[in-house]
Amino acid sequence: MARLARDYAVPIIFAPPLGVKGKINGATGFGVRLDSGIFIATAYHVLHDKGGYVDRVQKGQRVHCLVGNLPPLDPISRVAWQDKELDVAFLRISEAEAAALGPCIISSPPKWPPDPPKEGELVLMAGYPKSLRKADRDAGSIGSGPLSAVFQVRKVKEGCCTCVVERSDLVPFEGKLPRPKTKIGGMSGAPVLRVQTISYPIVGIFSGSFKITTQVELVQFATLDKVKI
């Protein structure tokens, strides 16, 4: 079950070209195939927040956007639909790019846009936190370690849901769990799946988390029922 979510998630890295000094940051996304095309979905703030891709480009920095194993692309020119309030962005990709990305493409969801989950339901999320990222500047490589979690929906609001996740529910697929009090930046844009007996349909995009204690975090994700694409 957790590996299913991991297979859907794809790392998104913003980094300077090889040989150029600069900041490396990143996020998570996932691919989805719809009647209107194939898209990489992620959080809006990943592109537009202070220190994000747009901000860095406007400041004259040389920044590559790397989605999975694809060559560098300009995410702004790929935007097919986005909503600042929902914190959702969809980037259009080609058939060839989708094939290169592999299993992270969710093919033809049974219902689109999907209904939001109900309070009390379980959801599953996987992404690529900064704390599990490994950068080798000499070799020009950036590795990403996936992290997964199952949590219960506590509150359903207009356009978003909130949940409480405990560290005991986190599952690292590479390396160790992030230490207590570690910020799990890089998870923004991660796919959120509804836990069902047979299928695990996509229902949301991870927006962010707010620490309550060293063991518990309040998690928020955007629902997709208002998406128009």
Detail the topology: elements first, then pairings.
Elements: H1 2-8, E1 9-15, E2 25-34, E3 37-42, H2 44-48, H3 53-58, E4 64-67, E5 79-83, E6 88-93, H4 95-101, E7 105-107, E8 122-127, E9 134-136, E10 141-143, E11 147-157, E12 160-166, E13 170-172, E14 191-194, E15 202-211, E16 216-223
Parallel strand pairs: 2-7
Antiparallel strand pairs: 1-2, 1-4, 2-3, 3-6, 5-6, 8-11, 8-14, 9-10, 11-12, 11-13, 12-16, 14-15, 15-16
Summarize the structure in short.
This protein has 229 residues and is mostly beta strands. The chain has four helices and 16 strands.
What does this structure look like?
The protein has 229 residues and is mainly beta. Helices cover 11% and strands 42% of the residues. It contains four helices and 16 strands. Strands 1, 2, 3, 4, 5, 6 and 7 form a seven-stranded mixed beta sheet that branches. It has a six-stranded antiparallel beta barrel with strand order 8-11-12-16-15-14. The chain has a two-stranded antiparallel sheet with strand order 9-10. A hairpin with a 4-residue loop joins β9 (134-136) and β10. The longest helix is centred in the first third of the chain and has 7 residues, at 2-8. The protein is globular. The two termini are 28 Å apart. Mean pLDDT is 82; it is low at 135-143.
Largest sheet: 7 strands, mixed
Give, in order, the helices and strands. HEEEHHEEEHEEEEEEEEEE
Q: How many E-type strands?
A: 16
Classify the beta-strand content into a percent band: 35-45%
Kindly name the structural category. Answer: mainly beta
**Which whole number gives the mean pLDDT?**
82
- Total helical elements: 4
